[in-house]
Amino acid sequence: MFLKPDYNVEKLEDIDFSKLKESGKSVLFFDLDSTIMPSNSGAYLPKTKKLLDELQKDFTIVVLSNNTKQSYIDKVRLESNFEVISNAKKPDTKVMFEYLKKIGKTVNDAVIIGDRPLTDILCGKRACVTTILVDSITKDKENRIVRFARWLERLTIIYK
Ligand SMILES: [Mg+2]
Fold it and tell me: Which CATH number fits domain 7-154: 3.40.1000.20, 3.40.50.720, 3.40.47.40, 3.40.50.1000?
């Protein structure tokens, strides 16, 4: 496979957003669960909320989630002051392309940030947008099975 992300960082805070801005990026697609919000919690951690608010000064923020639970997504929308797209069907790129077209941007303007190689990073690779893989926001609290599944999925990342 060819899933090496452009950047692979531990935490959202480790991403060099000013560098992204300098290189002309203006749209940040964020995965939701385990990337910017603990999975199925429906609430941002205060530090993440602060970071997202700060980033909105320089970027269009969009959540691109594969989650299909309407009540959950409604709750997330109430907590968010940016667009939250559910049922995105990543690694399919259609929803991402539609959104970029809608706001008059191209793949060159965009970055995708997520915790999963096979959905988030593959979607970004297929769309030719910059890809950033982050560790799960709740990495330290996950059980062994989840951690093992994450480890297995990361075997799809091939480093030269
Ligand atoms: Mg996720």
Answer: 3.40.50.1000
What percentage of the chain exceeds 70 in pLDDT? 97
How many angstroms is it from 39 CA to the middle of ligand 1?
Answer: 8
**CA of 71 relative to ligand 1 center, distance in Å:** 18
Predicted confidence (pLDDT) per residue in 75-101, tens digit: 999 999 999 999 999 999 999 999 999
Mean pLDDT score of the chain:
94
Q: Find the 64 Cα to ligand 1 centroid distance in Å.
A: 10
48-78: b (≥16 Cβ within 10 Å) or e: bbebbeebeeebbbbbbbbbeeeebbeebee
Do 133 and 139 touch, CB atoms closer than 8 A? no
Query: 139 pLDDT band (50/70/90 cuts)?
Result: confident
Domain definitions of the chain by residue range = 7-154
